[in-house]
Design a protein that fits this description.
Elements: H1 2-13, H2 17-20, H3 23-47, H4 53-88, E1 93-94, E2 102-103, H5 105-135, H6 140-144
Antiparallel strand pairs: 1-2
C-alpha cells in the first residue's frame, strides 16, 4: 500500500499541477486518512494488549467498503491525469537508436489501473478472511457449539 500511495501521490498527483486541485484528490486523501486512523489506532492498542471491541469491529469492518472506494478514487485520479500526461509527455521516454524502444507513460498508467483492480480483489478477499478470523461469522448457532 505504501508503494501504491507513493506512485499515486508523487508520480500522478504531484507531477501534474492541474490534477492537484481536483476534488477527487481531496476525497482520496480523506479515505486514506480515515482508513489509517482506524488501522493504526487498533494496531497500537493491540500491541499494548488492549482490545476494545468497537474499535476491533471498526478496524475489520470499515476497511471492506472503504478500501474499494479508495481504489476507485485512485483510478479516477489516474483517469483525470491521463490527458495531461498525454499532452505534456511527462515521464514518456524514447531510448536511443541501439535499443529503439519507447515508453509511453499513459500506457503504463493504464496497465497500472488493471493491476490496481486485480490487486483490490485479492486484498478485499484477505480483509474478509481477517474479519472472519477475528470477529467470527456472527452466527449464534456456531458460537454455541
Amino acid at each position: 500500500q505504501i508503494t501504491e500511495r507513493i506512485i499515486v501521490l508523487f508520480v500522478v498527483i504531484n507531477s501534474q499541477e492541474e490534477v492537484q486541485g481536483k476534488y477527487v484528490v481531496c476525497i482520496l486523501f480523506f479515505l486514506w486518512n480515515l482508513l489509517d486512523l482506524v488501522r493504526y489506532t487498533y494496531n497500537m492498542l493491540a500491541r499494548m494488549g488492549i482490545y476494545y471491541l468497537p474499535l476491533t469491529w471498526l478496524n475489520f469492518s470499515l476497511c471492506i467498503p472503504l478500501y474499494p472506494l479508495s481504489v476507485l478514487a485512485k483510478a479516477f485520479t489516474i483517469c483525470v491525469s491521463l490527458p495531461y500526461f498525454e499532452s505534456f509527455g511527462t515521464y514518456s521516454i524514447e531510448l536511443p537508436l541501439p535499443f529503439a524502444f519507447s515508453i509511453y507513460f499513459p500506457y503504463v498508467l493504464k496497465t497500472y489501473l488493471l493491476v490496481l483492480f486485480v490487486g483490490m480483489c485479492f486484498i478485499i478477499q484477505n480483509y474478509f478472511s481477517e474479519r472472519k478470523a477475528h470477529l467470527g461469522t456472527g452466527n449464534i448457532k456456531n458460537k454455541r457449539s
